[in-house]
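Entry for the shared binder. Reason: the reviewer on the internal report wants the predicted structure included alongside the sequence.
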Amino acid sequence: MDGQAKQASRRPEPRIEGRVSAAGAGGQGKRASRRFPLFTRDTARPEGGGRAASGDAPAPARQWPLLAVIATVAIGLLLTALDVFRVGTILIGVALIAGAVLRWALPDVGMLAVRSRFTDMVTYGVLGVAIVLLALMAQPRPWLEIPFLSDTLHRTITT
């Protein structure tokens, strides 16, 4: 090693105070920015994906939004298994709609946050509404009848 290399190796590493994101080019930490990068190089936690309760709370309390949705879906599946099909599937759809509302209303929802807030809300909401509507229109004796759907079905089958 020459003299400059020895001197450079003895130089203390610069310390970066405050928030630090992933390592920079030389393996050193670089200052974090609140702006999203132009190109994504790694998987980031979804916005709102923090704990729903403080870190010293037990695990179920930290994930209460997800557990509430899962418990409601489980009750709906149980009702469906007990031959109360329509009420059970409506309950499953309502649980998904409630998940969309929780995702919208709460800043941190724990593991209920999977993607961005907007994508989660749209996904949970659309699937919940679709399940509720299909449960209401299920045969026999549907609770909701949409006249143009049966006309469309008859026209599609006869042509």
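Summary line for the report: The mean pLDDT is 78.
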